[in-house]
Amino acid sequence: MNRKWVGSFLIILLLAFGVWLFFNSPFSTSQQTLPAEVRKDGTSILDIGNQEAGNRPVKTFSLTAQEKAWQISADKSVSAWTYNGTVPGEPLRVTEGDFVKVHLKNELSVPVTIHWHGVILPNQMDGVPGLTQDAVQPGESFTYEFMANDAGTYWYHSHQHSSKQVDKGLYGSLVIEEKEPAYQQDQTYILDEWAVNQDKQNTTNMGGMMMGSMSRDGEADTKQMYDTFTVNGKSGEAIDPLQLEAGETARLRFINAGYQQHRLVFPEGSMEVIAADGEKVVNEGPSSNMLEIAPGERIDVAFTKQREEAEIIGEDPQIKNAQDMRIPVVSGEEAESFAYNQLSVSSASSKETGTSSGSEDLLFKETPETDVSYHMDLSMGMDMGEGMSFQINNKVFPNTPLIPVSEGDVVKVRITNSGRLNHPMHLHGHRFQVASKNGEAYENPIVKDLINVKPDEEYTVYFKADNRGEWLFHCHDNNHADRGMITIVDYQSVYSPFKLDGEHNNQP
Questions:
Q1: Among 58, 99, 289, 299, which is least packed by CB within 10 angstroms?
Q2: How many CA atoms within 13 Å lie on the side-chain side of 103?
Q3: Recorded GO terms, molecular function (predicted)?
Q4: Are 468 and 428 in contact (CB under 8 A)?
Q5: What CATH number labels 49-181?
């Protein structure tokens, strides 16, 4: 065969393959529009679910997105993106029944938003660029308004290019207090990870992902990306101690704003889970001294100081960088003089917490009849030129199959993880009831808005389609969401007027 002809054929073949990649790559900019089904006729999401204060108390806050050097510890600092100049951003506390107004001003050089994680609110206030609003441009402002109807622990964070913006510090806590609080002392702790002494981007390549997959460690990829853990933006000895006297009990609200699962260990007999994702839980059987909390998850505990001497709550010592994530618990007299380095974290018990505790108030008393069934298969794939992709039903966003619903539908979602990494799946605008794990029904189901699906696990969840709009259902390891693991709960009677990318650079 003529060599010249063979060479020409190979060139044509390569060019054809390149064209195919451009138009079929899940990350091709030519496909960055919402599926046609979302842009159908009906009612705009801007015309549904509007809420007004009426005679409710109004709580008003202002949050400014700005860049600032942030000191994590005595020897570690980062260039952070912040709300109001701190990491985490200003803690927001309101009372059940309040009407909340938050004015966001953007002083960064990139667009931002605020998503109110776990809060049931009108779709147009959900803060997802390209789906529920346009991203707030540099120098511009946006006001979020919603009713704080459900007491519990929530948090807020940017949903614009979250894999970067949340990673750089754009998050904070939102606590909706009960009208009659049950605990005199109430503290919030936001957990996170940072790449301080390494370049995170060097660890998100294809080789690192493949190593994580082969190791069968559901956290292997994230463990490569970060070298420093923080609690409320501080690490190690810079973490403020909890002041509590022996025998006193405090409500501790834990929020995982990072992308790695954490395992907090408490002194034996000191802790009981009282809420998960804003829902009160019922504990039965032996207690545990270990709290496993997934990315995006919130778990509240009642913590009782066991001894007069200083104690410690800390990351499981078996986990790399565990020494960074330790909260001293001291009496008032010890606040300035305790010996931090002499405090040791207890051994962790193996009992699962959080998901294994049943909820006080269920969405369904019995297994409901289903109007819509959806199988969500979570997997990993390859995207030529981009490295690893994270898929739902073998597709990446915005090409993932939607979950089509009508108002009032009961929706059943069976979630299976056929990959080798953990996927904490979070549903916007609704709560779901976790009915079974690996085919075995829970005796005490739990109501949540996030479930951490580990490799080879299967969960069945149910929810009621009772909040019209266009709502994300995605992995809250935002590095995985950024690479495709997102779908939309699509109400058939409404549409979104917004578009991905475009002049506002909407990147959900």
A1: 58
A2: 7
A3: copper ion binding; oxidoreductase activity
A4: no
A5: 2.60.40.420
362-504: CATH, from 1.10.275.10, 2.60.40.3500, 2.60.40.420, 3.40.605.10: 2.60.40.420
Q: CA 288, 258, 447, 91 torsion: positive or negative? A: positive
Q: Cis peptide before 129, with omega less than 30 degrees from 0?
A: no
- Spell out the domain ranges in the chain: 3-31, 49-181, 193-358, 362-504
Rounded Cα distance between 300 and 200, Å, is 30
The yes or no reply on domain 193-358 and CATH 2.60.40.420 is yes
Instruction: State the Cα torsion 65-71-72-74 to the nearest 10°.
Output: -170
Domains 49-181 and 193-358 share a fold: yes
Residue 103 Ramachandran class (φ > 0 left, ψ -120 to 50 alpha, else beta): beta
Sign of CA dihedral 241, 244, 245, 249: negative
Peptide bond into 398 cis (omega under 30): yes
Our separate counts of H helices and E strands in the chain read 5, 33
Q: What is the pLDDT of residue 67?
A: 98
Please choose, from the candidates 268, 337, 274, the residue with its C-alpha nearest in 3D space to the C-alpha of residue 302. 274
In Å, how far from its chain's centre is CA 477? 7
Tokens (6 digits) for 168:
């750089």
Residues 6+ apart with CB under 8 A from 51: 99, 121, 122, 145, 146, 147
Q: Around 36, how many Cα atoms within 13 Å sit in the side-chain half-sphere?
A: 0
Q: What does 334-386 look like in DSSP terms, one character per residue? A: GTTT--GGG--PPPPP----STTSEESS-S-SSPPP-SEEEEEEEEEEEETTT
Q: Is 54 left (phi over 0), alpha (psi -120 to 50) or beta?
A: left
Contacts for 194 with CB less than 8 Å, ≥ 6 apart: 72, 78, 226, 227, 228, 229, 230
What digits encode the pLDDT tens for the residues 273-292?
Answer: 999 999 999 976 667 899 99
Residues 448/431, Cβ–Cβ less than 8 Å: yes
**How much is the mean pLDDT over the chain?**
88
Geometric angle at alpha carbon 99, from 93 and 105, rounded to 5°:
70
**% of the chain with per-residue pLDDT over 70:** 85
For 5-35, write each residue's pLDDT tens digit. Answer: 444 444 444 334 333 333 333 333 333 566 7
DSSP 397: T
